Amino acid sequence: MNRDEYVLKFPEHCKTCEGWGIVRGHSPIFTISECRCLKAGNCPRCGTPHALDAAVRCAACGWDVDDEERGLPS
Ligand SMILES: [Zn+2]
Ligand SMILES: [Zn+2]
Predict the structure, then answer these.
(1) How far apart are alpha carbons 30 and 59 in whole angstroms?
(2) For residue 16, how far is its CA from the centre of ligand 1 (angstroms)?
(3) Reduced to 3 states, what is the DSSP secondary structure of residue 10?
(4) What is the Cα–Cα distance from 35 to 42, expressed in whole angstroms?
(5) Cα–Cα distance for residue pair 14/10, rounded to 1 Å
(6) Along the 74 residues of the chain, how does pLDDT read in single tens digits?
(7) Domain map (residue ranges) of the chain
(8) Which ligand has the minimum distance to the alpha carbon of residue 19?
(9) Could you say which ligand is closest to the alpha carbon of residue 40?
(10) Mapping DSSP to helix (H, G, I), strand (E, B) and coil, where does residue 7 land?
(11) Residues with Cβ within 5 Å of ion ligand 2?
């Protein structure tokens, strides 16, 4: 899947983390933190509110925090 296909398929994906559920900080040091959508339990990919279960997996689209291709392709 390329970026265009991803955007077409998941138009409601989180624009902050681009579907990854994590955001990378750039300064002053390289950091990775959970995106707000993930903390709120909303799916980063399909945007369904409170869709994530205890295993951090989306009940609606199958987004999984351990899936290596869960976010918008770069
Ligand atoms: Zn997000
Ligand atoms: Zn989802």
Answers:
(1) 31
(2) 5
(3) coil
(4) 10
(5) 9
(6) 999 999 999 999 999 999 999 998 877 777 889 999 999 999 999 999 999 999 999 999 999 999 999 999 98
(7) 1-68
(8) 1
(9) 1
(10) helix
(11) 43, 45-46, 58, 60-61, 63
pLDDT of residue 4: 97
Other CB atoms within a 10 A radius of the CB of residue 1 amount to 12
d(CA 58, CA 27): 31
Distance CA 45, CA 35 (A): 12
Residue 26 C-alpha to ligand 1 middle, in angstroms? 17
Ligand in nearest proximity to the CA of 63: 2
Q: What are 29's two structure tokens?
A: 């040091």
Residue with tokens 């300064």: 27
- Ligand sitting nearest the alpha carbon of 12: 2
